[in-house]
Amino acid sequence: MPTFQAAFSPLRDGRRAPSGNGLTRSSIDFLLRMTEPLIPAILAFRDNGTPFSPRHDDIYHSAVGGLAQAQYVFLQGNGLPGRWQGRRVFTVLETGFGMGINFLMTWAAWRADPARCERLHFVSTEKHPFTRDDLLSAYAATVADASIAGLGQTLAEAWPMLVPGSHRLEFEGGRVTLTLVFGDAAETLPTLWLRADAFYLDGFAPAKNPELWTPAIFKTLARLAGDDATFSTYTSAGDVKRALTQSGFEYRKVEGFGWKRAMLMGRFAPRWRVRRHEPPAPLEVQERHAVVIGTGLAGCAVIERLAARGWRVTSLERHAALARDASGNPAGVFHPMLWRDDGVASRITRAGFLYALRRWTMLEEAGHRLVRGSEGLLQLASTEEESNMMAAALASFGYPSEYVTLLERAEAERIAKLPLAQGGWLFPHGGWIDPATLCAAQCATAGERLERRFGVEAARVERVGDEWNVFDAEGHLLARASAVIFANAHEAARVAGLRYAPTRSVRGQLTLLPAGSAPSLASLPLPVIGDGYAVPLPEGVTLTGATYDIDDPERAVQTAGHVENLQRLAQMLPTLAGTLDAQDAASLPGRVAFRCVTSDRLPMIGALADEAAAIHDSERLRGAWPLDLPRTDGLYGAFAYGSRGLVWAALGAELIASQIEGEPWPIQRDLAEDLDPARFLLRALRQGTAR
Q1: 3-state class of 448 per DSSP?
Q2: Taking every annotated instance into account, which residue ranges of this chain make up the domain MnmC-like methyltransferase (predicted)?
Q3: Which of 72, 174, 408, 650 has the greatest number of beta carbons closer than 10 A?
Q4: Residues 162 and 259 in one domain
């Protein structure tokens, strides 16, 4: 294995990924706590029909009524809907999602308000989320208002799998976004990055659920509060009042709801500096127009996410059509990675996998055709030892079966319909997809907001006034816009002028087995992956591969590559041993594409740093963290996706669009920092080698 991979630990796709080198401090602390399984809430009712939590011995809402409490305490307490009127984006942060009544009432108020904000973000944490069935049962028993019950049904239909991390759900064509963060709020709240306009403080009572009312929680909220952000809560406990005051909030004690004598409401009005960094704000632009360089998986996902927010986009592509490089492969597999300590790679691919599934489903519901498999994906262990290790890991994580299921070899063989070398684990929602159909659908959704330019190649960018000019190698102006997103893989760092972006090229050769060339594969119903993969495509074709040839520029299909692919395939599927020899391999069709990878095997996603300014101020930034770095306004990266573009592209595009718009980030900040294009510059600054 080449030396630049030496700091990596084996993954289950035969490649390597980070085992700790380069992680942020928050990442290390967080992943050490993430080994505990997510435990669902228990649905129970008091004798009067009020839902309550046996775990906390407290009710989810007042016995007088959950809808009325949400309206009085949280909407009225925060001056809603009046405060969001005329705004482009308005963000609510809630501590404790519970049954979601506050969200449903806020959503209903937004729908009913003709002067509503353009986009409503609702972010909420929950340590013990309900299952979908229990959520529906709770609504059926407690929600009499038909309109609210209808929204509850819509929410339940979109309810995410119960796995830790952030889950972004979109409603009303994306104008209402719910970001659910499953996990302990004391651990997840500090990892969020957003600018809150209103806080719903709605954990169980301080005496029953003290960890949601600590001074540390309120200090975290102060770091996320926008100018004149408001808050409200049903409690008026003395410890809560003191913690609010110490964190820069002013409060008023007002008449409580139902049988509560008093409640608190107020605003963020610090008399002293209470935070090191200001929360995120939108990019200041005169026109909402962006240039996206590259129209593979990364670029097309960005186009779709920006156009969905009303941006006009100009795409620049050196080829004559979209999806021509690695995104032009006949198919790609998608699945999350399993990691025995739920580390960075596991958490990022889980978030990306689940978000991509939701985006693709929305594309299909809008009438766009995606060519993809629907039978799931089977991943095989390499050895018996690995199988035992993963069994122990999955038992500790407690993932639901709809996310992943461990399989003994006999059961795996029954599903695959052929003999296998090992057992493994099934991803019911994993599978394969034709990337070109996905790219076409994403661009089609942009409609007239997208200007497509093919056969042009960006060579450099230059700031002129408050916009960026993009030039080709001859100095001709190709486009001008307020924002530029570099999604052009190997060329991104060069065109963006980045020095601290270590990327390399990895050649990958695919092998296509025509129908009848390997009879034992004819009945394979789903992709099987391990050290290689077998993907059943239409018309009886099987796709296998791919080679992993670092810094190999050869573009022609090589017989040796086919032989390598077939050997690895036979190790997974023993019946294929000896089926195809080298002579047969020479006649097989195939395709070569080049992956762009970083030295830490994570993608480059997000705002680009101003490297010159950072180096000029290198002494002060020697101990810097990502938020300390100067950024180049309007420049963003979406590249180095390696072989995981299908899993990372949609989430990466949503992260970039959220950064541009000043919206809540779709993943925790510590994970975004692990993807930050400036992370290599940051390491050089810390090591004193930035020059």
Answers
A1: helix
A2: 150-266
A3: 650
A4: yes
Whether the pTM exceeds 0.90: the reply is yes
Q: DSSP string of 289-314? A: EEEEE--SHHHHHHHHHHHHTT-EEE
417 and 303: one domain?
A: no
202-228 average pLDDT score: 91
Shared domain for 209 and 246, answered yes or no, is: yes
Q: How far apart are CA 100 and CA 399, in angstroms?
A: 22
Lowest mean pLDDT among 7-11, 505-509, 644-648, 681-685: 7-11
Measure the CA–CA gap between 213 and 201, rounded to whole angstroms: 9
Span 431-457, average pLDDT: 98
CATH code assigned at 233: 3.40.50.150
* HSE-CB for 316 with a 13 A CA cutoff: 27
Q: Average pLDDT for residues 529-553, to the nearest whole number?
A: 94
Residue 171: count of CB within 10 angstroms of its CB: 18
Helix (H) or strand (E) holding 44: strand 44-45
CA 617 to chain centre: 32
Residues in the chain: 691
pLDDT > 90? residue 462 = yes
With respect to residue 6, please indicate whether it lies within any of the assigned structural domains. Answer: no
Q: Distance (Å, rounded) from C-alpha 369 to C-alpha 445?
A: 12
> Same domain, yes or no, for 443 and 527?
no
Domain count, the chain: 3
Which residues, including other chains, have CB under 8 Å from residue 354's CB and lie 6 or more apart?
160, 161, 163, 167, 336
Stronger pLDDT, 253 or 64, i.e. the higher one: 253
- Residue 223 sits in which domain range? 44-54+65-182+196-268
- Rounded distance, CA 240 to CA 233, Å? 10
pLDDT at 21 over 90: no
Q: Looking at residue 546, which CATH number applies to its domain?
A: 3.30.9.10
Phi and psi (nearest 5°) for 584? Answer: -65, -40
Mean pLDDT of the residues in the chain: 91
Note whether residue 191 is domain-resident: no
Q: What is the mean pLDDT of residues 460-468?
A: 96
The runs of H, that is alpha helices, within 292-371 are 297-308, 344-365
How many Cα atoms within 13 Å fall on the side-chain side of residue 505?
18
Who wins on pLDDT, 53 or 102? 102
Domain end: 566, 598, 630, which one? 598
Examine the domain organization and report whether 250 and 172 are in the same domain: yes
Q: Are residues 547 and 576 in the same domain?
A: yes
The string of pLDDT tens digits covering residues 469-496 is 999 999 999 999 999 999 999 999 999 9
- Is 22 domain-assigned? no
Q: How many CA atoms lie within 13 A of 102 on its CB side?
A: 33
Is residue 669's pLDDT more than 90? yes
Inter-residue contact 116 to 88 (CB < 8 Å): no
| 560 and 653, same domain (yes or no) | no
Least Cα distance to 445 among 594, 653, 260 occurs for 653
* DSSP notation for 209-240: -GGGSSHHHHHHHHHHEEEEEEEEES---HHH
Please tell me the predicted confidence (pLDDT) of residue 666: 98
Kindly indicate the confidence band of residue 11, based on its pLDDT and cuts at 50, 70 and 90.
very low
Contact between 90 and 226 (Cβ < 8 Å): no
Kindly list the distances between the CA atom of residue 337 and the CA atoms of 111, 345, 410, 648, in Å, as whole numbers in the listed order.
Answer: 39, 7, 23, 12
Q: Is residue 340's pLDDT more than 80?
A: no
Asked if the model's pLDDT at residue 8 lies above 60, the reply is no
Check: CB of residue 193 under 8 Å from CB of residue 280.
yes
- Condensed to tens digits (0 to 9), the pLDDT of residues 126-144 reads 999 999 999 999 999 999 9
Q: Which residue has the tokens 């004391």?
A: 186
| Within-domain flag for 32 | no
Name the pLDDT band for 374 (thresholds 50, 70, 90): confident
